Structure to design on (270 residues):
């Protein structure tokens, strides 16, 4: 089976890497905070002291990193180590510009696929993520099948683009629900009654996400995603929502908590 290097073992990366290890792939792992690799190493993964060490002799490289800056820093270290025939699957939420910059750093014979995911930590652990894959996925689809269902989105960069569209809609919907419920509180309405009315309407999915329990889409990452989206187009609604979540993320207790926690904070801010 292909030797896989997995770089980035955060809340999403760790369960994804574990699924590949359980499927029998030889796995080398690296994380900026080394302690995050310990559980995987205890179960048989190889520990790498650097990104460059992780990818040596790898057939497939998978990155699940916090953002564009982290991706490019890793690429600077990794690109010279990759041999022709290697496939790099970039699964972070970084936007198409970062994917194109990454592609420009790779040598001949290295295949790049952008494949960000939809779903939280529970779906990562179950292998039921939605994977939005741009580029030529033929060489890696059987690997990605261990992680979820692949939707081919088009040429390289299209997966990263579609992920921004989806996240902008999700974050915007959660922000709008929070603001609507803040209005309900200001008008003296019962919160449960207002929530039920919203859930029965076109924002039903956003209501569910605003009150999700057990999901983890960190508020500071939501702010990062909206920042990338707003660099691509004029998005006044997203800008307003981003400012609300940015203020919530100024509280360290909320910054790394799920956006549902931030939404609860916004609802109470009357």
């Amino acid at each position: 089976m292909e030797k896989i290097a997995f770089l980035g073992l955060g809340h999403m990366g760790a369960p994804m890497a574990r699924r590949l290890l359980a499927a029998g792939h030889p796995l080398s792992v690296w994380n900026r905070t080394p302690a995050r690799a310990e559980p995987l190493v205890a179960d048989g993964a190889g520990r790498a002291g650097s990104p460059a060490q992780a990818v040596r002799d790898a057939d497939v490289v998978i990155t699940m990193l916090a953002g564009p800056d982290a991706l490019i820093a890793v690429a600077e270290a990794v690109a010279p180590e990759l041999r022709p025939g290697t496939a790099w699957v970039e699964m972070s939420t970084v936007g198409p510009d970062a994917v194109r910059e990454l592609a420009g750093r790779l040598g001949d014979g290295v295949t790049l696929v952008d494949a960000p995911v939809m779903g939280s930590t529970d779906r990562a652990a179950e292998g039921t993520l939605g994977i939005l894959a741009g580029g030529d996925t033929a060489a890696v689809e059987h690997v990605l099948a261990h992680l979820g269902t692949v939707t081919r989105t088009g040429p390289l960069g299209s997966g990263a683009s579609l992920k921004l569209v989806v996240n902008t809609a999700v974050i915007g919907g959660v922000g709008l629900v929070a603001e609507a419920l803040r209005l309900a509180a200001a008008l003296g309405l019962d919160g449960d009654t207002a929530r039920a009315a919203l859930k029965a309407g076109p924002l039903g999915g956003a209501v569910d996400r605003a009150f999700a329990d057990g999901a983890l889409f960190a508020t500071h990452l939501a702010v990062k995603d909206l920042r990338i989206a707003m660099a691509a187009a004029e998005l006044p609604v997203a800008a307003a929502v981003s400012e609300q979540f940015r203020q919530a993320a100024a509280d360290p207790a909320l910054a790394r908590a799920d956006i549902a926690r931030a939404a609860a904070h916004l609802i109470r801010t009357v």
Q: What stands out?
A: The beta strands are 4-7, 27-30, 46-47, 60-63, 87-90, 111-114, 117-118, 129-134, 148-154.
